Amino acid sequence: MSKLMRINDSTVEKIEELSKITGQTKQKIMDRAITIYSYEQMLKKANEQYAILKSDPQAWKEMQHEREAWDTTLMDGLKDDKS
Prior knowledge:
Blueprint: H1 9-22, H2 26-55, H3 57-71
């Protein structure tokens, strides 16, 4: 489904320039830009939540203990595959 949306002239110019440079369609460029922005927002939120966790000494200690418990799951006795 196609929808129209207004964007600034300067943004249109940037998209057109990127299209010329990359050979990708303007739609592909917009899709990629929005995907990257979405990932950035997810990482920003994750970092904020991690900082909150780290600022709570008890919660941070519990998380460290949980990590230690999970670290033992890799001790399966198999050698690392270095091929």
